[in-house]
Design a protein that fits this description.
489 residues, Leucine-rich Repeat Variant, Serine Threonine Protein Phosphatase 5, Tetratricopeptide repeat, 3 domains, 69% helix, mainly alpha
């Protein structure tokens, strides 16, 4: 198994949502409606409908109508057995019927039924992939997304209950089918772009919310995460989370964070998340203050942690996935997470949440020490009193602070280079060592040092009588010349 295959395998997971009961009318009564969202309350009413199956009979095989009528009266376990035995038959019939029927009340009923079954019996979604015309069926469903009967409301019904109800169900159903098996990459990309357009549609809050709920399903699979990220989906999610955090929209915060948490299981994506500023969704500008997703998480934890434990759990789990990659640890320190986590630690949490909290707290605490060490390092280099100490040998120190050498046109680096001409061989040796670390870790380190004309002076130390200086000069030159130094070492 290749590294990428292993990474993708490790990144798959089972979503920990609580599914509603399988489609069965007697389980849903108006007694519970007041505790549900407007959409879920409307779904209860849809499930209680009495459908005129003779209308459906015009579009699909009569045997299926008989099966469907009989299906409604079965117990949950009996319904499960029927789906497991006749999944492909039901899958084909559902799609053909949804595609052909124009009566909205029937479309709503069938979509509600299909969505319930896919949640209760996840394997049912795979039944669509067992059909020879599976991709054609998916395209039929995608086409229905733009049909008037699905995308618009009806005048006789309150908009809050009915507007986009079918649209919301249909797009989630398609997502469940795509996640369940393999499809043509073009179909997967087209649907992913459909969802990205939804969350970018600022004229429709309904589509944005539907798109986010769909992503909670779609991003279970690594291939869809990569498609979504490559097509600039993360930038929009981050902007939406930032806006939701300012409005204290807890439900949106949870759902968007869930999507970002899903993305954080892909290491290639995590390495690039730090490249984006949140406000405006632009690439970071090193001359301005960076504000990455970690800063938004910190603000949410600070303002909303006391009200929603599930939000805290998701954010901490995401931070664990982001830790020790790029500048994320430094961002956690700068976002004041140490103080925020210290406050959170005073509350009683369940075991996994407490473990994640402790993990992040320890990482931030250690990196706070590293950042403070930078101030000491600057003072040491500036004063010219270089001495061997743990700072110079700490790989963590160099990883976390390498970007700071760029400040003020590499001013500190220029001072460090000047110490090569110091008369003290110990100071010269330390300067060689540190310049070698810079060349090894900074992406353009070798070129930058060459432009500062440090190489010639360092080479002159290769025959120096001080063996320590000779040793450090040799290693520095090797780091300046060789690519992939860490792997060779």
């Amino acid at each position: 198994m290749s590294d990428s295959e292993e990474e993708n395998k490790e990144s798959e997971y089972n979503i920990f949502t609580i599914p509603p009961p399988v489609f069965q009318k007697k389980l849903f009564t108006s007694v519970y409606s007041k505790h549900l969202s407007a959409e879920d309350a409307y779904a209860v009413k849809v499930r209680e409908r009495h459908i005129k199956w003779n209308v459906v009979d015009e579009f699909i095989d009569g045997d299926f109508v008989a099966r469907l009528r009989d299906f409604e009266s079965k117990t949950i376990e009996e319904q499960r057995t029927i789906i497991l035995d006749f999944g492909p038959l039901f899958a084909n019939a559902f799609v053909q019927c949804i595609h052909s029927v124009t009566a909205r009340n029937i479309i709503e009923y069938l979509l509600t039924m299909l969505n319930d079954l896919m949640i209760e019996i996840p394997s049912f979604a795979y039944s669509f992939h067992e059909l020879q015309n599976s991709e054609q069926l998916i395209e039929l469903l995608r086409g229905k997304l733009h049909a008037k009967a699905v995308s618009s409301g009806e005048e006789k019904v309150p908009k809050k209950q009915r507007l986009y109800y079918c649209y919301n169900l249909l797009i989630k159903i398609i997502a469940r089918i795509l996640v369940a098996g393999e499809v043509n990459p073009d179909i997967a990309k087209q649907f992913t772009m459909d969802v990205i357009r939804m969350i970018n549609d600022i004229s429709s809050k309904h589509k944005i919310k539907a798109g986010i709920k769909t992503l909670m399903i779609l991003l279970q699979k690594d291939k869809h995460r990569l498609l979504f990220f490559k097509n600039r989906g993360f930038e929009r999610l981050a902007a939406l989370l930032n806006a939701a955090g300012k409005k204290t929209d807890l439900q949106s915060i949870y759902q968007i964070t869930f999507c970002i948490w899903s993305l954080s299981f892909n290491k290639r994506i995590v390495k690039k998340l730090n490249d984006f500023e949140i406000e405006g969704g632009r690439r970071k500008n090193q001359r301005t203050k960076r504000r990455t997703i970690i800063f938004v998480f910190a603000e949410i934890l600070k303002s909303n942690a006391k009200t929603k434990e599930k939000i805290v759990r998701l954010i901490l789990s995401t931070l664990v996935n982001l830790a020790n990659i790029g500048n994320n640890n430094s961002d956690m320190v700068e976002a004041d997470l140490l103080r925020i986590l210290g406050s959170l630690s005073q509350r009683n949490w369940e075991k996994q949440l407490k473990s994640d909290l402790d993990t992040i707290y320890q990482i931030v605490h250690e990196n706070l020490h590293v950042l403070r060490s930078w101030d000491k390092y600057v003072e040491e280099v500036t004063s010219g009193e270089l001495t061997w100490g743990p700072i110079h040998k700490s790989s963590l120190f160099w990883r976390e602070n390498i970007g700071k050498f760029e400040e003020k046109d590499f001013r500190l680096l220029r001072v460090l280079v000047s110490h090569l001409w110091n008369s003290d061989s110990t100071i010269q040796a330390i300067a060689c060592h540190d310049l070698g670390e810079f060349a090894k870790i900074h992406p353009r380190g070798k070129d930058i040092l060459s432009s500062l004309e440090a190489k010639g002076k360092i080479m002159s130390f290769l025959n120096h009588q001080d063996l320590k200086l000779q040793h450090e000069a040799l290693f520095c030159i090797q780091k300046m010349l060789v690519s992939g130094w860490s792997s060779m070492k």
